[in-house]
User: Fold this.
Amino acid sequence: MVQRAFNLSPGPAILPLPALEQARQDIIDYRGTGIGVMELSHRGPEFEAILAETEALLRELLGIPASYKVLFTTGGAHQQFSMVPMNLLTEGLTGNYLLSGLWAEKACDEGRKFGSVHVAGSTKEEGYRKLPQIESISRGAAYLHYCSNNTVIGSQFPTEPDCGDVPLVCDASSDLLSRPIPIERYGLIYAGAQKNLGPAGVTIVVVREDLLSRSRDDLPLMMSYTTYAKSASLFNTPPTFPIYMVCQVLRWIKAEGGLAEMERRNEEKAKLVYDVLDSHAVFVPVVDRGSRSKMNVTFRLRDESLEKELLRLTEARGLPGLKGHRMVGGFRASMYNAFPIEGARALCDALIEFAERHR
Ligand SMILES: *Cc1c(COP(=O)(O)O)cnc(C)c1O
Assistant:
């Protein structure tokens, strides 16, 4: 038996053990072919079956209607910051952005390079400690872009912002598949895999088909959604191994009970940790109560000189990765789908022990 840590890393992040164990076998010999999964041709029947299963599982788990395309791209969420405006921010329209944290801001900055941009709402002045509301939407809005879970500061929208008929575009890199969502409310939703879906290297884009017709046909091929949609993501060599791993993770999610069960677990884990933080004055949660993330729990210490001691304690308890993002400081416990409830309990025990030492 291997000793697995309760890895609190924000991403690349913990993956489900059954997915890794299946991969260990398939890396050497994929289903008796004598060829490892990374060595399979992307045009062969084995990989085509993996790709088809991955898409089918995504459609099933997320309830993706037939009028949406599922695309597998590379370049991470950052490439989507560019592809969204390149494809959807057509002449005369304005990209609307809701600013809730670092990633939302980066998406907005990238949008400015391609056309006119309007900030629909922002809590930057408050250090993003709470979620913004939509204050205004521009006329001729191409879309409203928002980030559902703010991985760095640790906030999360409980529901979709309401932007009426304007296509809603979402960076869901750190919470896609953590809970059921109404996909039909979105024009486009994307997620880099390395937080909650699999390893780094593949980005999932779900887009309503009618939006694809907006893309100019002089875009660089690999920056056009149409290229991926027309070729079923097989225009060039896709990231075959990351896609295979996403497939294993999706199988695991389905076997464990789907997104309703993921949501139940994520709520349970987050509640355990927030309750400990709220009941000990040595801890200072970063984000206002109503805005808190179920994925990334962020907090500081009242006495910041004790930070190293807490990190030493949690690491000694098999809980690596608690250090906060360099822009926020303090601590961040990232507890994605694959992070077990036992890990949340172990973290609570360590936090309580620390609080009692320093009450
Ligand atoms: C991690 C993260 C990103 C950046 O992802 P890359 O794949 O490194 O480009 C963007 N948005 C969110 C919400 C993230 O969590």
User: Anything to note?
Assistant: Residues 11, 76-78, 103, 147, 151, 171, 173-174, 192, 195 surround pyridoxal-5'-phosphate (CB under 6 Å). The radius of gyration is 21 Å.
